[in-house]
Amino acid sequence: MKYLWSAIVVALLFMVTSCDSGVKSTRGFSLPQGDVELGKATFLKYQCLTCHVMEGVEQDDIVKHNNISVKLGGKTATVKTYAELVTSVINPSHKLITRYPIGMIQEDGKSKMRIYNDEMTVTELINIVEFLQSKYELVPYRRTSYQYYDMGQIN
Questions:
Q1: How far apart are CA 112 and CA 92, in angstroms?
Q2: pLDDT tens digits for range 119-148
Q3: What is the distance in angstroms between the CA of the first residue and the CA of the last residue of the chain?
Protein backbone atom coordinates (compact mmCIF):
# COMPACT_ATOMS: atom_id res chain seq x y z
CA MET A 1 0.00 0.00 0.00
CA LYS A 2 2.88 2.34 0.84
CA TYR A 3 4.31 1.94 -2.68
CA LEU A 4 0.92 2.56 -4.25
CA TRP A 5 0.61 5.91 -2.49
CA SER A 6 4.18 6.80 -3.45
CA ALA A 7 3.39 6.01 -7.09
CA ILE A 8 0.23 8.12 -6.96
CA VAL A 9 2.11 11.09 -5.46
CA VAL A 10 4.88 10.82 -8.08
CA ALA A 11 2.28 10.63 -10.88
CA LEU A 12 0.44 13.70 -9.55
CA LEU A 13 3.68 15.67 -9.22
CA PHE A 14 4.61 14.73 -12.80
CA MET A 15 1.20 15.84 -14.08
CA VAL A 16 1.35 19.16 -12.23
CA THR A 17 4.89 20.02 -13.30
CA SER A 18 4.40 18.87 -16.89
CA CYS A 19 1.50 21.32 -17.25
CA ASP A 20 3.95 24.13 -16.60
CA SER A 21 6.10 23.52 -19.67
CA GLY A 22 5.92 24.34 -23.31
CA VAL A 23 5.24 27.51 -25.22
CA LYS A 24 1.75 27.93 -23.72
CA SER A 25 3.04 27.75 -20.14
CA THR A 26 2.10 30.53 -17.73
CA ARG A 27 5.36 30.01 -15.84
CA GLY A 28 7.14 33.32 -15.38
CA PHE A 29 4.09 35.46 -16.18
CA SER A 30 3.43 38.28 -13.78
CA LEU A 31 2.24 41.82 -13.97
CA PRO A 32 3.49 44.70 -11.82
CA GLN A 33 1.59 45.64 -8.69
CA GLY A 34 -1.37 47.91 -9.33
CA ASP A 35 -2.87 50.82 -7.48
CA VAL A 36 -6.15 50.16 -5.64
CA GLU A 37 -7.46 53.73 -5.95
CA LEU A 38 -6.67 53.92 -9.67
CA GLY A 39 -8.30 50.49 -10.01
CA LYS A 40 -11.48 51.79 -8.38
CA ALA A 41 -11.45 54.75 -10.80
CA THR A 42 -11.08 52.29 -13.71
CA PHE A 43 -13.88 50.12 -12.31
CA LEU A 44 -16.14 53.18 -12.28
CA LYS A 45 -14.87 54.46 -15.67
CA TYR A 46 -15.96 51.24 -17.38
CA GLN A 47 -19.26 51.34 -15.46
CA CYS A 48 -18.87 47.83 -14.07
CA LEU A 49 -21.68 48.55 -11.61
CA THR A 50 -24.22 48.35 -14.43
CA CYS A 51 -24.01 44.56 -14.04
CA HIS A 52 -22.03 44.08 -10.82
CA VAL A 53 -22.63 45.00 -7.20
CA MET A 54 -19.89 45.58 -4.67
CA GLU A 55 -20.37 46.52 -1.04
CA GLY A 56 -19.22 50.07 -0.34
CA VAL A 57 -18.91 51.06 -4.00
CA GLU A 58 -21.60 53.26 -5.53
CA GLN A 59 -21.98 55.14 -8.79
CA ASP A 60 -24.89 57.51 -9.30
CA ASP A 61 -24.54 58.25 -13.01
CA ILE A 62 -25.10 54.74 -14.38
CA VAL A 63 -28.11 52.83 -15.59
CA LYS A 64 -28.27 49.41 -13.95
CA HIS A 65 -28.81 46.45 -16.27
CA ASN A 66 -32.33 45.17 -15.65
CA ASN A 67 -31.66 41.52 -14.86
CA ILE A 68 -27.92 41.26 -14.13
CA SER A 69 -26.57 41.85 -10.63
CA VAL A 70 -23.41 39.79 -10.12
CA LYS A 71 -21.78 40.32 -6.72
CA LEU A 72 -18.05 41.00 -6.55
CA GLY A 73 -15.92 41.02 -3.41
CA GLY A 74 -16.89 40.05 0.09
CA LYS A 75 -16.10 37.04 2.22
CA THR A 76 -14.90 33.92 0.46
CA ALA A 77 -13.52 30.56 1.56
CA THR A 78 -11.26 30.33 -1.49
CA VAL A 79 -8.48 32.67 -2.51
CA LYS A 80 -9.26 34.87 -5.52
CA THR A 81 -5.86 34.80 -7.12
CA TYR A 82 -4.45 37.58 -9.24
CA ALA A 83 -4.35 35.21 -12.23
CA GLU A 84 -8.03 34.23 -11.79
CA LEU A 85 -9.10 37.86 -11.66
CA VAL A 86 -7.00 38.83 -14.70
CA THR A 87 -8.51 35.91 -16.62
CA SER A 88 -12.04 36.86 -15.53
CA VAL A 89 -11.58 40.39 -16.89
CA ILE A 90 -9.92 39.52 -20.20
CA ASN A 91 -11.86 36.31 -20.86
CA PRO A 92 -15.17 36.42 -18.98
CA SER A 93 -16.39 33.18 -20.59
CA HIS A 94 -13.37 31.24 -19.28
CA LYS A 95 -15.13 30.18 -16.08
CA LEU A 96 -18.79 30.97 -15.78
CA ILE A 97 -20.06 31.17 -12.23
CA THR A 98 -22.78 28.74 -11.29
CA ARG A 99 -24.46 30.52 -8.39
CA TYR A 100 -26.63 32.62 -10.73
CA PRO A 101 -29.38 31.59 -13.15
CA ILE A 102 -27.85 30.73 -16.52
CA GLY A 103 -29.90 33.31 -18.42
CA MET A 104 -28.71 36.08 -16.10
CA ILE A 105 -24.99 35.73 -16.82
CA GLN A 106 -24.64 33.92 -20.13
CA GLU A 107 -26.14 33.57 -23.55
CA ASP A 108 -25.35 30.64 -25.86
CA GLY A 109 -22.69 29.41 -23.40
CA LYS A 110 -20.80 32.70 -23.39
CA SER A 111 -20.64 35.36 -20.72
CA LYS A 112 -22.83 38.41 -21.21
CA MET A 113 -19.97 40.53 -19.90
CA ARG A 114 -18.69 42.98 -22.45
CA ILE A 115 -15.14 42.28 -23.67
CA TYR A 116 -12.86 45.22 -22.84
CA ASN A 117 -9.66 43.87 -24.40
CA ASP A 118 -9.54 46.48 -27.18
CA GLU A 119 -10.49 49.34 -24.87
CA MET A 120 -8.73 48.79 -21.54
CA THR A 121 -5.02 49.51 -21.27
CA VAL A 122 -2.69 47.05 -19.56
CA THR A 123 -2.19 49.62 -16.79
CA GLU A 124 -5.95 49.83 -16.28
CA LEU A 125 -6.16 46.02 -16.17
CA ILE A 126 -3.40 45.85 -13.57
CA ASN A 127 -5.10 48.49 -11.42
CA ILE A 128 -8.62 47.09 -11.69
CA VAL A 129 -7.40 43.62 -10.70
CA GLU A 130 -5.55 45.09 -7.70
CA PHE A 131 -8.78 46.86 -6.71
CA LEU A 132 -10.91 43.73 -7.14
CA GLN A 133 -8.49 41.59 -5.16
CA SER A 134 -8.56 44.10 -2.30
CA LYS A 135 -12.34 43.67 -2.04
CA TYR A 136 -12.23 39.95 -1.21
CA GLU A 137 -11.83 38.78 2.38
CA LEU A 138 -10.55 35.26 2.89
CA VAL A 139 -12.35 33.57 5.74
CA PRO A 140 -10.85 30.45 7.28
CA TYR A 141 -12.42 27.11 6.48
CA ARG A 142 -14.81 26.15 9.25
CA ARG A 143 -14.39 22.57 10.32
CA THR A 144 -17.47 20.54 11.13
CA SER A 145 -17.88 19.88 14.83
CA TYR A 146 -18.57 16.20 15.50
CA GLN A 147 -19.69 16.46 19.10
CA TYR A 148 -21.28 13.01 19.16
CA TYR A 149 -18.50 11.25 17.28
CA ASP A 150 -16.45 8.79 19.33
CA MET A 151 -12.94 8.32 17.85
CA GLY A 152 -12.46 5.20 20.02
CA GLN A 153 -15.01 3.24 17.97
CA ILE A 154 -13.11 3.40 14.68
CA ASN A 155 -11.60 0.04 13.67
A1: 8
A2: 999 999 999 999 999 998 888 777 777 776
A3: 18
